[in-house]
Amino acid sequence: MKTFLLAGLVAMLVLLVLPMGVSAGNNTAVTVSGTINLYIEVGVSPNSTQFFTMSAFNTSTNNTAVVTTNTSSTSWNVRASDARTGVSKGFMNKTPFWNLTNPFQLSKDGVGYSPLTADYSNFMVNATTAGSFTQTVYQKQAIGVADRQGIYNIIVTFIGIAT
Amino acid sequence: MSLGYQKKFRFPVLALVLLCIAACATQPAAALKVEGAKIMLDVVPDTTYLFPMAVSINPTDSASDYAVDVLGFGQSVEGGSYTPLTAADDTSAYSARPFVSVESPVIHIDPGQRKEFNAIIRVPQNVGDGGRYALIHIHSAATGGGQTAFATAIIVPVLLTVENTKLIETGTITEMGVGDIVAGKPITVSSTLKNTGNHHYYGVVNQITVTDPAGKTVATAKADPVSNAVIPGQSVRFTTLVSTPLAVGTYTVKSDMLLGSGAVLDSRTTSVTVKEAYIPPFQESGVKVTPDSPATLEVPEGTVRISFPQGAVIAETTVTVKPYTGTLPDLPAGVNAGTTAFSVDGLSGLLAKDATVTVRYNKPDLDAANSDASKLVLGRYDRGEGHWTLLPTTVDNNAMTLTASTNRFSIWAVIVAQGSTPAPVRTSTPAPVQTSTSEAGQKAAATQSPAPGPLFICGLISLILLARSARKK
Fold first, then answer.
1. What is the pLDDT of residues B36-78, one digit of tens each?
2. Would you call B466 helix, strand, or coil by DSSP?
3. Which residues of B touch A155 (CB under 8 A)?
4. Mean pLDDT throughout B350-367?
């Protein structure tokens, strides 16, 4: 009987002390409820392109892709970026570390090109309207006389932000 | 079907299937959708918030692992783009990065799948006053395999406001400058604003006022508000264009940074000297061109005049002309451009009958030619071919005009040709004229690829195999 009483007392103490311990360690948890209706979707088609065979002194401009943004946000932008940092950023290169002489360039109209050594901010931008939008991306790569033969690559990331 | 027949065709069929897969695999799309794409909350210290989010990809996309990284909130000076900062670079006192996390740093998504997860925000008891900021970067390592591979990513801004604390929204213009004053180009005034408060603000407008030495306002300009918030500790450059005629003289340029409420964050002035009377860019103008009557497109300032004869187009279309203010495409060797440049939109393909373009050149154009107007020609940049065509041009020294005929439109510029008037450059037989009523239509036409599609390749290979088997029989 004494054992039962002792066990009951210990159990009661545990039940009393444990919640206090938990509440002392945790703050209030709040789940932000409601539907998650603000969305942004960024797509690019095709997801890769191929220049024709490139040769010295030539500039390849033959390929395009289409970036699509679909969003419920009225204020948004998409920027184009080469995620790498340092001397390789914005250059097509081949394994292990050969960069082409000239930077890779992007354009929205096939006329005014920007080197991807810096992010192409506001590749798509809208401060007032939600909906679905498309933008053709034009690419350009000039080949220098010192560029070595080989297969060069670059990864361009289109980053969408509901601002 | 006999076993031998099956064996005989096993390899070609397998090859065909592999080729089809390869052909189809070269043209996929990549799309990433994030729901809960912006976290903007009023928060209470010592509270945890679970913010629901979801990531999905299209049924046609490949299965992939998506990384969900919580990073510091940086901004580029140019345009104020939100830029993720690593922990080492995220030194801001207003960072929320240390107390924002996600349930899983990597999410595997199969084609067409949507996965929900929570962003977890554990607001510390001693969080402090004002706002706290972080960025959630959702990205995939998977990309296409071509020379240029494309990937997509989403950045989710996290903007937290600590409730019942003192919010300070202040700013300082740390830098101000006026660009070169060139006839036909807008004057660029740039002002850099640093958020010196403890809370972000949206909708900042840079209002520019130009006054003459007598203090009279001669020009004002206001850029549209930027779509990005300005975060405490960050600096954003605002660029405003002034396009008002200015006489020779010295002017005071004032920049006022205004909040949406109209409150002035900061003001700064600088002076600028106009050495030659400034002529602003002409106004964008348009005209409807129909097949059955001639039409003339002329800007109000008289800088550009385009005459379309009857029958120049085969369908009604609206043609617009506007100043070209961007960087001109690379010019041919041995020539340089003046300052007059414009683009003509609304037409694709070739005109059935040549139009006449007359451009009034200005003094900077003439200066570029060392005051020899006979060296000036009209240059047309042909987007399709990606090169300039210098057109045979008639120069009228008295009217200061250049006139040329053309069967197509794109970007135009006044060019200084070192030699004599160039020989005519003509497209061979004019193709039937195509018209489009919008730039979007032009772009759609420009994106049509002449390369054969995957189905065409599969069909061709099937025909070859069938022909071979028929010949063997």
1. 999 999 999 999 999 999 999 999 888 889 999 999 999 999 8
2. helix
3. 143, 149-151
4. 94
CB-CB under 8 Å, B381 with A39: no
- Quick check: B34 and A40 CB within 8 A? yes
The DSSP 8-state label assigned to residue B16 in this structure reads H
| Residues A27, B125: C-beta atoms closer than 8 Å | yes
pTM for the predicted model, two decimal places = 0.76
Beta-carbon separation of A46 and B79 below 8 A: no
Distance CA B83, CA A118 (A): 12
Mean pLDDT (whole number) for A77-106: 89
Determine which helix (DSSP H) or strand (DSSP E) holds B73, and give its type and residue range.
strand B64-75
pLDDT band for A52, please (50, 70, 90 cuts). Answer: low
* B435: confidence class by pLDDT, cuts 50, 70, 90: very low
Model pLDDT, residue B89: 96
Number of cross-chain residue pairs from A and B with Cβ atoms under 8 Å apart? 210
- Chain B contact probe: residue of A36, A48, A57 with most B CBs at under 10 A: A48
Instruction: Give CATH for domain A40-162.
Output: 2.60.40
Can you give the pLDDT at residue B393?
Answer: 96
Confidence of residue B19 (pLDDT cuts 50, 70, 90): very low
CA distance A136 to B108: 29
Give the three-state DSSP class for B5. helix
Residue with tokens 């900062």: B85
In a 10 Å sphere around its CB, with 0-12 CB exposed, 13-18 middle and 19+ buried, how is residue B9 labelled? middle
Smallest CA–CA distance from B24 into chain A, residue: A46
Question: Mean pLDDT, to the nearest integer, of B150-163?
Answer: 95
Cβ within 8 Å, pair A64-B81: no
pLDDT > 90: what percent of chain B? Answer: 68
Q: Between the CA of residue B449 and those of A46, A62, B364, B446, B452, what are the distances in Å?
A: 12, 10, 41, 8, 8
B157·A161 Cβ contact <8 A: yes
What is the rounded average pLDDT of the residues B24-32?
A: 57
**Residue A42 is nearest to which of B46, B51, B152, comparing CB atoms?**
B152
**Half-sphere exposure at residue B153, Cβ-oriented, CA atoms within 13 angstroms:** 28
Closest-CA distance of chain B to residue A8, Å = 35
CA of A83: which chain B residue's CA is closest?
B151
Domains, chain B, in order of start with CATH, read 32-162 (2.60.40.2310), 171-274 (2.60.40.10), 285-446 (2.60.220.30)
CB contact under 8 A, B48 and A153: no
Q: Which amino acid is at A70?
A: N
